[in-house]
Amino acid sequence: MFDKKKSETATAQEEEVAALGVAADLSETAAAVTAAAGGEVGGPMLSDRAREIAGYVAWAIAAAILLIMVLAFFGVEMGWTTELGNSMLDQALDPQTAAVAVAVIGLNIHFGYTGLLNMGQAGFMLLGAYGFAISIVEGVPLVFAILIGLAASGLFAVVLGVPTLKLRGDYLAIVTISAAEIVRYVGRATAFNEHTGGPQGIEGQDFRGPVTDLSFFGSGNLDVGSLDYILTGANSWWMRAVAWSVVALCVVVVWLLVRSPWGRLLRGVREDEDAIRSLGKNVFAVKMQALVLGGLFGAIAGMLYVLPSSVVPDSIGRTLTFYCWTALLLGGAATVFGPVLGSILFFVVRILVTGIADNTVPDSYLNTQQAGQFGWIVIGVALMLLVIFRPQGVLGDKRELRFNV
Amino acid sequence: MRWLLIAAALLGVLFAGVGPAAAQAAEPCRASADNGCLTGTLDTGEEQLEGVDVLITPVDDKGEPIVGQEPTTATTDESGRWSFSFTEPGRFQVEIVEDSLPDGVEALPSKSKLLKGPGNSVVVNGMIGGLASGQPVILGVRSEDYKAETSDFEYFLQSSVNGIRLGLLLALASIGLSLIYGTTGLSNFAHAELLTMGGFTGYLLVQNVGIPLWPAVALVTVICGAFGWVQDRGLWQPLRRRGLGLTQLMIVTIGLSLALQYVFQLIDTETVRVVVGIPDGVEIGSVGITWQSIISMAISIVLLIGVGVVLLKTRIGQATRAVADNPALAAASGIDVDRVIRLVWTVAAAFAGLAGVLYALVTNGVKWDSGLQILLLLFAAVTLGGLGTAFGALLGSMIIGYVVEVSPVFGMPSDFKYATALVILILLLLVRPQGLLGRPERIG
To answer: A76-108 pLDDT, tens per residue?
Structure first.
């Protein structure tokens, strides 16, 4: 009777308490216990008025960000704000922002739609990046190099899924975060130096060639407003075009998938595994498909992430996974556009916070480096507040997010 | 607790009494803000070699000697130690001058691929602002009639002692993690940040405030315990009341871990050490161990036994186990669940902080992101033992700590020694997902 799964028996436990005739004395404790066991009781922590004000503030900040970016784009002189606007605009369009958006789209399939707690998205990215970069360096044609990257990541998903997908969600979280770290350790280990380059990694110029060769943009510079990049190369318009086209493609794929019967199956698994199982579906197989698919998006993200820079294992670690999570929750889990919006917002807001802290607080209190660290502290706190006060993010639907492990 | 403080203070006095004598025998080269030291001991395992020359050559990134910079020769003293002072950071190739070795002793090529230079030499990165005692450079020597197995066996013994030490410290930290999981269902991703916090608080108290070591360790425990209390009062209890799901709570802990990490980075971006200098130690047979390690292990053992006794014998321990088993039934039986959870958070944070300061003391200090590495070991340990079981956490920690330290003896490259623990975890989940001491119904 008491051995049932906690998350399922929240209400049942309440009934048990009531049946024992002590519910009245223990109502407070019972509420806390039910809450601890994952139930949905208790009122909102904020009053409606506070919520309303917070909403206005959020809109005001969003409008201010857009305004600064537009003014900076047209070269309006505003002191350090122009510079800030330019770096925000640059970051919003950066190919690595696009790469993170693709990773978050994959994470959205895991967590948003299926409820899988993948804490090692960076591991999928790193494997995709290594598979791609090492293949190109070894002289494999581009298409096969991409396939090898995808295969590495897909295999990784299967290996992680087999021991954990039948267990409670925490196990997947612990195993994925561990496995992602193993990938990073192996990548930076000196034992495989000749392939992975150890901690220094693989230089971008060693594997970027086949992608930049595809460019039909020609050479030279293109200057649009305040944006000025070379047409073809590492930090180029071509890279931006490739990265954001991939993002658009991924969004379309996810949009089609989640509207399909298979997409409804994913949500069903997230909402109530047992119900889906009782309908005769193989829940394990569905979860595994979702894990592999999201991992493939992660692999593509990894390739995009390293194309403009280089494969450095330490830059694709746990922290990057956490950025992906923050971006996902910011944009809105279980939405099609949430991951993209969230990724852009995440990086832009971080630059905004860092830039304002750096330019308004005197250096004696907060120098540039410390302002950067302050920016990350704000990100961490923002993640906490977001989950507590607006778990559905900007675009999400709160009813979609009753998931639990 | 008081007798423990007294015991710690007494041991501290003992340690202080032994310290100066060792300091006199130490090397003249002391690192400062302006110079760094390379240092090492030539010891065949049977005797320390006196009067052996060690040639130190500045080299460039490719390992070629830099033109115009002369090699320096350092000579070992009667205890086999040599040291070399430099004012410019850079790479150095260090090698034993074979002709100066006594008869019947030979130099060994370096075992580490990373540090290997030509012949028996090693290449090291000389850094300034590192350890005051200098960067150790390991040069192998042995007598020619020496048997290789003995050395491996000694290596094994030394690693075993280190493994037990790591296991005990992990156990101290993971019991709290496991109890929090047991009583609230929460996987606390910010738990290892409490260890880092312990290390940083210890560093601030000892180095900046100037409190003697062992009282500072006690103070760190109190401060971290208070932080745990505040965390539960200010964050986790309101969130539980509010009915936030476990998944959301877990993400909140991730946000907290991220924020705390960068707070530590604001304090210091480099590795911080609680005590700078060469700690004094004893040699038992071929195994060397510092007094700080011995005291840390003693503290861990005493506290772990204490936790066991409290959990098994006292009312509050029974209440804790009851809450871990079934919170609703515990509440119905008249147990104040919130009070138990508050106590668990306080004790868990105190123990984690203590483990952190001891970890910083017996290893090379902690860095703002050390939490990551430790967190993975802690998760491996509690999952191995069985999520939510205190004694499982203890067993899992001992196994993980031991395996991590001993795996290099059996040929695991030391780059991978942390990965070993994680591989064990994944393999175990395949065959026994509930962990060694867990009950099957806890899972999936």
So the answer is: 777 788 888 888 888 889 999 999 999 999 999
Domains, chain B, ordered by start = 33-146 (2.60.40.10), 155-442 (1.10.3470)
- The mean pLDDT of A361-371, rounded to a whole number, is 80
Q: Is residue A334 part of a domain?
A: yes
Q: In terms of CA atoms, which chain A residue is nearest residue B115?
A: A190
Is B387 strand, coil or helix?
A: coil
Tokens of A351: 């630059």
Expressed as residue numbers, the domain containing A192 is 77-401
Q: Contact B259/A380, CB-based, under 8 Å?
A: yes
Chain A residues in contact with B419 by the CB 8 A cut-off are 181-182, 185-186
Nearest-neighbour CA in chain A from B444: distance (Å): 4
In chain A, which residue's Cα lies nearest the Cα of B190?
A: A380
C-alpha–C-alpha distance, residues B179 and B323, integer Å: 10
Selecting from B379, B423, B429 the residue whose C-beta is nearest the C-beta of A164 gives B429
* Interchain pair B247, A403: CB under 8 A: yes
**A224 assigned to some structural domain:** yes
Q: Give a yes or no: residue A2 inside a domain.
A: no
Angle, vertex CA B91, rays to CA B28 and CA B130, nearest 5: 50
pLDDT by residue (tens digit) across B57-103? Answer: 888 766 677 777 777 888 888 777 788 888 777 788 888 887 777 77
How many degrees, rounded to 5, is the angle at CA B337 between CA B335 and CA B343?
110
Residue A144, helix vs strand vs coil: helix
B residues 36..55 contacting A (CB < 8 A) = none
Count how many domains chain A has.
1
Tens of pLDDT, residue by residue over A224-259, are: 877 888 888 888 899 999 999 999 999 999 999 999
Out of A31, A44, A171, the one facing B429 most closely (by C-beta) is A171
- Written as one string, the DSSP assignment of B75-109 is E--TTSEEEEEESS-EEEEEEE-GGGSPTTEEEE-
Alpha helices in B363-416 (DSSP H): 370-385, 390-406
Of A5, A39, A373, the CB nearest to B243: A39
Whether A109 contacts A293, CB under 8 Å: yes
Residue A366: CATH number of its domain: 1.10.3470
At residue B289, the 3 state secondary structure works out as: strand
C-alpha B194/C-alpha B200 separation (Å) is 10
Which helix (H) or strand (E) element contains residue B181?
Answer: helix B148-184
* Low pLDDT (below 70) residues in chain B: 1-28, 30-31, 33, 45-46, 61-63, 109-119, 128-135, 142-150, 439-444
Q: Name the one residue in this structure whose structure tokens are 């202080």.
A: B16
